[in-house]
């Protein structure tokens, strides 16, 4: 496309692209934007290496004029968007990219990869957080998604309200609290469960979490308290019929004098099984597959569309495709969240054309993310990740209570064009 | 775990871990192993950098003895496994890792991340390939998965029988044929659809593929043939009611004398919609979201389990956990595929203990992948990827016809322990 646009003289036309989702996947009531901070860093360093350019040349993918253009590539445009952690609805213009056609269109795959994956994880994770009713959740799903997606998933889950991750790289790169756990292999490595527990307590202290379902849960809980004493930090249960098992283990621990020993469960949990454990004496959850795969909706369905461009005379033209079922709304958009007097969200209002000054009952949703090629520093790195987590908490607090119903339904507030 | 095992003197115990799946996701009849070649490269270069070690030290994740051990880490053990591209069934021992406990357990997350994601994509892609009945498929889903998972997905889909990918990095890194396409934004960038088509044909020649559903398909097909002539390579349809639309466009192209112009469709396809287009005059498919997200099963459900280890006296002990619903089968395994006289697969037979010499009707399934730390060169890089694609074709050709039914069902052959 860039090759052909350079030849036809249209590659430099000032253009506005928009990222949005036509619908929320899985009959969810709201989505959570994640990936923005990661994306800003990736756009800031988006370059073509000599090795890449040589390959493109050897394979005749583009001509020499385009190769030169790629060699000099550096995004110099501007981007506005929903702050990371913001909630969103169908049609919400999550990212607004302004630049020449060529410099903006080339970011499509990168922007969508990052936002679709990270937002899918965050949107699922936020439902698990509300299902957990304040009990902490740890993300433990690195092994169930691609090795670099695993790091992104840990970050997205943390933004959505998870407390920690087992992914150490996510801890190092994004400042996310990390936690570890012992696997069944650690118990099986030793000559007996007792040897394994003694080895773990010797290394980690009695505050550690012992895995009690390798052989027989009741016997293992007795052994755990015998070895670590009533100061035992927690026991982990990774199999079995959870609500009954958890209650039985709680009674057993209390009977052994280990009233402060916590119970953590980790058996293929998702938002529904977490909600089903609300009445059980669980202290924390470890979640794997379901959170890193978006709990049934592994891609958020976001698209990257041209919505306006200048013509040869420099006038802005709104553009939209009219494909059946996939029509787009042209033109630059200025979204606000309409709030009731008590501060509850009532509608997503998307102003077309000139920006409306938001009144007290309307919260503007676009913030500058990249200004003339420079990513906004406050959204980057570990600080940006922490900011996104705080923003998510505030944005979710505005939602009406029906937002937290787990069953399939419509978005909890309507999207209205104004 | 490594920290505690070093202290308890068990970290060096020779151990055997196994990767397997308890079941096939989504009621599928068979799975396709992918990711092995990628994994061998990643294990070969698995090291801890100074920056990583410093972080682990500062965060007190492990003690100094373990830090030293990590600083020297290099996998020196051996790995056997199913050749990449092989089909698999519940219980198939896909990877057998032999090394000290510590050097093997540390690979768990990496091995599972790579194999779970890549095999999920390949298993879905193989069904799309059979549903397409010989028509070529292009992988176009980079934007619907994490940015590095996208490269892995392109590779896995190619191994499973896709013909090409739109991911240029996958072309460069793994030697996969690449293809491109024009988006709606390219049409909307120009002052008219005619200008856009002329620009594309000028840059790419009449053999290009023109996207005809930005405004009105019938008008666009007329325009496309007017501009490119009957040598027009193809038209792409990305929306609408596909079977009827495709038939109408075929009649229109034939009526315009463009009998050789092909039709490619790309509208949210999966194995079911591809099968539904069997009677329509489609020439090729572009598949995005469904293939890179495993078409409903985004993780293959593989686990990494200790199955044997030596005791303090150096004797091998088979180990297994007995958790409810998650019990494992201990001991080293030697799997073979049992074949009928005509060469059709009839069972997955997993020999426990000493290897059985496979007779003419039994194909041994384990091949050496890493020998004392050295990955087998023939499985690496672009050559390894091509080899995996060829092996997949041969392995799938052995399956009985019922393997290609798309409905939910049991594995097409039983798994038997012997």
UniProtKB/TrEMBL annotation, chains A, B:
<dbReference type="InterPro" id="IPR006405">
    <property type="entry name" value="Nic_PRibTrfase_pncB"/>
</dbReference>
<dbReference type="Pfam" id="PF17767">
    <property type="entry name" value="NAPRTase_N"/>
</dbReference>
<comment type="similarity">
    <text>Belongs to the NAPRTase family.</text>
</comment>
<keyword id="KW-0597">Phosphoprotein</keyword>
<dbReference type="InterPro" id="IPR007229">
    <property type="entry name" value="Nic_PRibTrfase-Fam"/>
</dbReference>
<comment type="pathway">
    <text>Cofactor biosynthesis; NAD(+) biosynthesis; nicotinate D-ribonucleotide from nicotinate: step 1/1.</text>
</comment>
<feature type="domain" description="Nicotinate phosphoribosyltransferase N-terminal">
    <location>
        <begin position="1"/>
        <end position="116"/>
    </location>
</feature>
<dbReference type="GO" id="GO:0005829">
    <property type="term" value="C:cytosol"/>
</dbReference>
<comment type="function">
    <text>Catalyzes the first step in the biosynthesis of NAD from nicotinic acid, the ATP-dependent synthesis of beta-nicotinate D-ribonucleotide from nicotinate and 5-phospho-D-ribose 1-phosphate.</text>
</comment>
<dbReference type="GO" id="GO:0004516">
    <property type="term" value="F:nicotinate phosphoribosyltransferase activity"/>
</dbReference>
<dbReference type="GO" id="GO:0016757">
    <property type="term" value="F:glycosyltransferase activity"/>
</dbReference>
<dbReference type="InterPro" id="IPR040727">
    <property type="entry name" value="NAPRTase_N"/>
</dbReference>
<protein>
    <recommendedName>
        <fullName>Nicotinate phosphoribosyltransferase</fullName>
        <ecNumber>6.3.4.21</ecNumber>
    </recommendedName>
</protein>
<keyword id="KW-0328">Glycosyltransferase</keyword>
<dbReference type="InterPro" id="IPR036068">
    <property type="entry name" value="Nicotinate_pribotase-like_C"/>
</dbReference>
<keyword id="KW-0662">Pyridine nucleotide biosynthesis</keyword>
<keyword id="KW-0808">Transferase</keyword>
<dbReference type="GO" id="GO:0034355">
    <property type="term" value="P:NAD+ biosynthetic process via the salvage pathway"/>
</dbReference>
<dbReference type="InterPro" id="IPR013785">
    <property type="entry name" value="Aldolase_TIM"/>
</dbReference>
<keyword id="KW-0436">Ligase</keyword>
């Amino acid at each position: 496309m860039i090759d052909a646009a350079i030849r036809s003289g249209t590659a430099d036309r000032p253009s506005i692209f928009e990222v949005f989702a036509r619908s929320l996947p899985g009959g969810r009531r709201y989505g959570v934007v994640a990936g923005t901070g990661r994306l800003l860093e990736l756009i800031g360093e988006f370059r073509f290496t000599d090795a890449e350019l040589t390959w493109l040349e050897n394979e005749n993918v583009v001509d020499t004029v385009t190769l030169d253009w790629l060699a000099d590539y550096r995004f110099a445009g501007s981007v506005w968007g929903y702050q990371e952690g913001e909630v969103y609805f169908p049609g919400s213009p999550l990212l607004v990219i302004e630049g020449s056609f060529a410099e903006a269109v080339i970011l499509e795959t990168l922007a969508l990869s990052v936002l679709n994956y990270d937002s899918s994880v965050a949107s699922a994770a936020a439902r698990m957080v509300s299902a957990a009713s304040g009990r902490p959740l740890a993300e433990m799903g690195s092994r169930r998604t691609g090795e670099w997606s695993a790091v992104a998933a840990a970050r997205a889950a943390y933004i959505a309200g998870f407390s920690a991750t087992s992914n150490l790289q996510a801890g190092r790169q994004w400042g996310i609290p990390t936690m570890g756990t012992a696997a069944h292999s650690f118990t099986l490595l030793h000559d007996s469960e007792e040897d394994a527990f003694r080895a773990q307590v010797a290394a980690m202290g009695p505050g550690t979490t012992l895995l009690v379902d390798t052989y027989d849960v009741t016997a293992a809980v007795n052994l755990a308290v015998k070895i670590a004493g009533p100061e035992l930090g927690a026991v982990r249960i990774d199999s079995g019929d959870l609500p009954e098992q958890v209650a039985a283990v709680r009674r057993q621990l209390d009977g052994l004098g280990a009233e402060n020993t916590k119970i953590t469960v980790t058996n293929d949990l998702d938002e529904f099984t977490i909600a089903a454990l609300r009445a059980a004496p669980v202290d924390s959850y470890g979640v794997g597959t379901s959170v890193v795969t978006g709990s049934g909706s592994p891609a958020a369905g976001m698209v990257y569309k041209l919505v306006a461009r200048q013509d040869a005379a420099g006038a802005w033209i709104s553009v939209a495709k009219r494909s059946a079922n996939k029509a787009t709304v042209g033109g630059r958009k200025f979204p606000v969240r309409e709030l009731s007097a008590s501060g509850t969200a009532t509608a997503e209002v998307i102003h077309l054309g000139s920006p409306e000054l938001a009144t007290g009952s309307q919260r503007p949703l676009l913030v500058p993310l990249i200004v003339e090629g420079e990513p906004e520093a406050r959204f980057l790195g570990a600080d940006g990740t922490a900011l996104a987590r705080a923003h998510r908490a505030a944005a979710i607090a505005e939602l009406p209570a029906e937002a937290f119903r787990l069953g399939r339904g419509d978005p909890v507030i309507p999207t209205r064009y104004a």
